[in-house]
Amino acid sequence: MSQEGGLYEKEPPIPPNEYVRVKHTVLREFISKIFVAAGLSSNDSWVVADVLVTADLMGISSHGVQRVRRYIDGLLHCCVNPKPKIRVVRDFGATALIDADNGLGHVAGVKAVEVAIEKAKRYGVSLVLVKNSHHYGIAGYYSLRAVEKGFIGISATNSEKLVAYVNTTTRSLGTNPIAVGIPRKTPPPILFDAATSIVPVGKIEVYAKMGRKVPEGWVIDFEGRMLSGDAAEILSEIRAGRASILPLGGLGEEFGGHKGSGLAFIIDVISGVLSGAAWGLHVRYTVDTAPANVGHSFAVIDIDAFIPKEEFYERIESYIDELKSLKKHPSADRIWIPGEKAWNTMMTRLQIGIPVHIKVCEELNLIAKNLGINEKLCDLNKS
Amino acid sequence: MSQEGGLYEKEPPIPPNEYVRVKHTVLREFISKIFVAAGLSSNDSWVVADVLVTADLMGISSHGVQRVRRYIDGLLHCCVNPKPKIRVVRDFGATALIDADNGLGHVAGVKAVEVAIEKAKRYGVSLVLVKNSHHYGIAGYYSLRAVEKGFIGISATNSEKLVAYVNTTTRSLGTNPIAVGIPRKTPPPILFDAATSIVPVGKIEVYAKMGRKVPEGWVIDFEGRMLSGDAAEILSEIRAGRASILPLGGLGEEFGGHKGSGLAFIIDVISGVLSGAAWGLHVRYTVDTAPANVGHSFAVIDIDAFIPKEEFYERIESYIDELKSLKKHPSADRIWIPGEKAWNTMMTRLQIGIPVHIKVCEELNLIAKNLGINEKLCDLNKS
Fold it and tell me: Smallest CA–CA separation between A97 and chain B, in Å?
């Protein structure tokens, strides 16, 4: 957390000298070109680039442009379809089922939330599921799409296994995040966006970079022993496939591990089992020998179906004022509303640029070059 | 947890000699008569009694017949309406808003989930909100109502303040539970039913009875200090209004306290703010100087809108088989599916009866007597 002259970044670049600041429009343009060169339509490329750059703007760099490598590998090797025919395969009342045809999840996600918004206009609420998809980036992006049009937007997804179900030791669940976006009269909207694991891997990456120690209670090995201490070491155990992240609520049931893993399971049943996608052990990584078959869920609620929107806005403002007026815990920096940190980070980075790690920058330059793009994102020799 | 000759109780009566076993039909009949005597219709009385007895059957005694005192006090003093005119005040497509007219939440909840089921049949998904209600007992009861008819049922509610929002110390949120019920071809169904607090108060009550110590991480005082140790002492601090339960994820953000309190907040925004009910600080206890104005949410999903039901059932069985086959953590008793403990407890108690504490039994006898019922639930002099 950093705060200088009104600027705020929930995840400041550490160490600062390993980063270059890039304007978000420049970054999005560059990423978009990469995806066009990898075979996506210009529209789909823009969508993918916008989801990734939005994550970086919001300070969720684990889900930002550093993931381009993974998606491009999936497109070039196996099993992402660059030109998916995304189709509504079932349509019943306020619901729809979409087949993403193994394209990138971002493209299917945006399509699905648009269908969900149209259905919510007509029926007050809607539920749209997606199968045969891939990783869709930050769940919150899709909720925000609904919020921008004045709706409440809910988005959830399954993902490849990384989390231990309660009372077990190995990986069987994804970090299966859920995001809920709620509009306010003026920004920032409320944006709850959380993995159902105790932490996302991205947090351990940040700890590794900062040289911080992982506390006991985040990660176990396959024998069920707690792994704590050096974050870089623990990260390499996770990456080597020898450790599991614990669910929200931690190990066992004493602090609610059954709640966190229960939530992950429910999200998987709706996003994966009900949609016809893969679930649990069967959801694959983007680059594999067969398609990932990720499943997503999108629900949209029309506020006006329940209460006049102006009244809703007034009530939400009162609620937020009340939360902000509570007695702050002595160890806390301040009282935050869900999504406020990410929004403030976005406002800051729209102004001063997105910090891109020099290694990520070099990697993006190389990906572009290999795809025949005669352009560099950042010329590091000049800086 | 106890297991003898195939019998299982997730919350066994401790100490056993302070309890009498009562057949569930006898208990329900007796409770039903109490509510009739307090002015409810016989149908509404049966509903309330069934919700309470189901909680006891499932081993959630904190939400069982020991709560009769509270509801009767609300009916006799202030502010529960014994003969509410429950009305659908808004009806739009797949949504409805119900005014519970300050009646007990159980009655409005059953009505609301029935409306939600009918709408889901027609539109594939539905969302029904309730305002001007009171405490509705276990959230899972309403999900099970949908499950019995083959639907996925989601139920959530706000409740009187007891939980500290992340980075604060005092009480501003309810334990705001959410329940999701998912049908299987044969019972038990999946029933996830969890408070968004780190523990429900009921768990601290059980710890107090068992003489167990409360671990650090469940409760704080209003200065933000951890309260741990003697459960009876901590329980009395909570009851005296001098302590807050922490959200799922615990204190601060390191283990996800922002996630638990974020979930509680989102449930409150939908159940309370969107419905027109009270929220956060404004939700009252059942017995107070003004109505509680609790808000509930009910969503129902028609499985057939997405996938043929037989296929869904097969997929769910595979998923459950896979979870059950995972490597068990050495400290765990076994691998449980959400709702399985409660279901097994119910099967046991349908057979051997519900353990009712002698003090609860005496209290129920007294309540009945004061309402002119010439009958005793259990004659303790005889036992």
Answer: 6
